[in-house]
Amino acid sequence: MFDDVRSKKVVLIAHCFLNQNSISDGTAVYPAAFKSVIKILLDADIGIFQMPCPELCCLGLDRGNINGIDSPVTVENTRIRMEMQKGSANANLTRLVDYVMQQIMEYHKNGFELVGIIEANRSPNCGIDTTSDNDIEVEGKGLFMEKLAECLLNEHLTIPMIGLKGSDNIEKKLRFRRMQRTAAQPSNYKFSGS
Prior knowledge:
Strand content: 15-25%
Shape: globular
Number of helices: 7
Mean pLDDT: 86
Structural class: alpha/beta
Number of strands: 8
Strand order of the largest sheet: 2-1-3-6
């Protein structure tokens, strides 16, 4: 199956990197999307799997605080983190992880390469290296990424993860190395973050 021109390479990416309209009030760094990230991926012939935005799906666009822009980012992120740990929001978060895992397993089962996961550092849900808690940015994963990492571990799957922020030098932080191509295989790209 799938013996056509597709690369069979997929990267999972934070929803907000493709849609800045989905994030908390006062936190957008681009009018629409992280164009440089998208360009890097498309130039490497890597398909983009836009993951759902856990906060939008569980708390809504205003995240339950229409005055969120008036709070420092880490303070509002901490409030969002606490809301996401409650009853129905937490149950919905688990369902979103299950939704993502079902797709990951389909790609894996069919021999696609899951090149990497690119998420949003400092986010209370999508942070990889840092998240927000106790009104500051701290080391660790966000709630969504903690649950996803646990599911990947349970399935014995290793997918490289990198966290980005709008203030990062994205071109420098994202790197795709082209591996040598053999006659029997298409070109192979490996994800590496610095």
